[in-house]
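does this look right to u?? flavin-adenine dinucleotide version
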Amino acid sequence: MARIVVLGAGLGGLGTALLLARDRHEVIVVERDPAAPPPPEDTDTAWNGWQRRGVNQFRLPHFMLPRWWQQVREELPELGAALRAAGARPVNLLEELPVSRRGPMRPGDERFATVTARRPVLEAVMSAVAEAAGVTIRRGVAVTGLTTGGRSPAPRVTGVLTAGGAAIPADLVVDCTGRRSALGAWLAATGARAPAEERSDSGFVYHCRHFRSGTGGSPVLLANLLQHYDSLSAITLPGDNDTWSVVLATASRDKALRGLREPDRWHAAVARYPLLAHWADGEAISGVDVMAGIEDRHRRLVVDGDPVATGVVEVGDSWACTNPSVGRGASMALIQGRLLRDLLRETDPADHDKLARRFDEVSTQVVEPLYRATLWNDRHRLAELAADAAGTAYRTDDPRWPISKALFAASLTDPELARGYTAVAAFIATPDEVLGAPGAVDRVVALGRDAPQYPLPGPGRDELLAAIA
Ligand SMILES: Cc1cc2nc3c(=O)[nH]c(=O)nc-3n(C[C@H](O)[C@H](O)[C@H](O)COP(=O)(O)OP(=O)(O)OC[C@H]3O[C@@H](n4cnc5c(N)ncnc54)[C@H](O)[C@@H]3O)c2cc1C
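got this back:
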């Protein structure tokens, strides 16, 4: 069994650490933020008191998709049980839709189930479960660089350096330091070639608010979690312990909507959307939190067929991250953590060159298409928002975009397609799989082709601007 040092105790780092510890590796997680989480059942302290400067989105809305939950059930059942004990909320995304859209529940619909919680609660639970599984978490230890032992021909990473000057040796270093990972700079300092990296501003800005019910329960989901309207998208996310959150996502270039940062205007806007308005009907437990400047970024440590370094891999946001509207980050990190765990079952980390190549290969085959699919969706949605702001209709030569819009419109009246659309949103099917079902494309075209651009009830741009003026 290997000694594995995981950098970062975020969602990706903790999930990967847990998977590896269950395979009896010695796992040490090194986390820069000093504060330890409160006990998992103390959810109020996790929400109000736990300081996590290392994660910008720590108090922003998170929802764990059915794909994430499926993996937790299969691989980490103790995490599932601990989440439920801490008040995490079970949700079936299909069952929550109006029965007029989905028809009666059917066998197989349990695949739309998940359990979710606010991010601090999730992390507090994951930390406790990881420690119970034998993971050592060292908080308040910032990694500042890498130690290496020779070249073959790329530098072989043998551990990490910390701010205090101490080195932590490892058979394998797993970088889970998130969106702002400094791995590129650390590698450069070892003399390694530069990783292959692409990055750009995702172009979205999020205006988020969390709520709690004074009377128990949480609002009824009258539509899918992510809803697209003229000039903005809305996201409604159930949370743990009778909490929930609402997000208004706009294009960062759309200056006319910047007023959404102010609570009064934010509420005035939400009130205009019939499927959304009741979601603001609770005790606010946050301000309107704004997050902008979110990057899409992807980095590979194998360039021109050869690793730039061995003994180190990246998992989660450090490897790839996107605009979070579709809420796939934690699911993707767990998928990648599982790939690493599986690879270590057949490859000794001492065979470091092979491990570096194989991990890049499986990540590229399995996870990169998921990243590309999110980028594809975001690029079109951003262009559509730009067209909304310009008062024009968005046209594209890419036939998959109008088909994906038609799939949503058709899902409003066809229970089979309601399942298909929700399966894509739940991250348990791809659009190609849904549209590949016999007769699906014909029904999508027949029911969705002539649908309005935004089939859900909501204000047009002028009315929205007037509401927040
Ligand atoms: C606004 C927003 C909303 C989101 N909503 C969702 C959602 O609904 N569902 C979903 O699945 N995903 C969501 N995501 C994505 C999700 O937050 C990330 O995919 C996830 O946090 C990635 O986990 P990670 O472990 O890779 O990185 P992180 O969770 O960012 O963790 C990185 C950790 O590394 C630590 N660290 C950094 N540098 C060092 C260092 N030098 N030494 C030691 N430690 C270090 C940090 O302190 C931090 O704890 C959202 C993201 C954003 C921005």
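The chain is about 35% helix and 20% strand. idk if thats expected tbh
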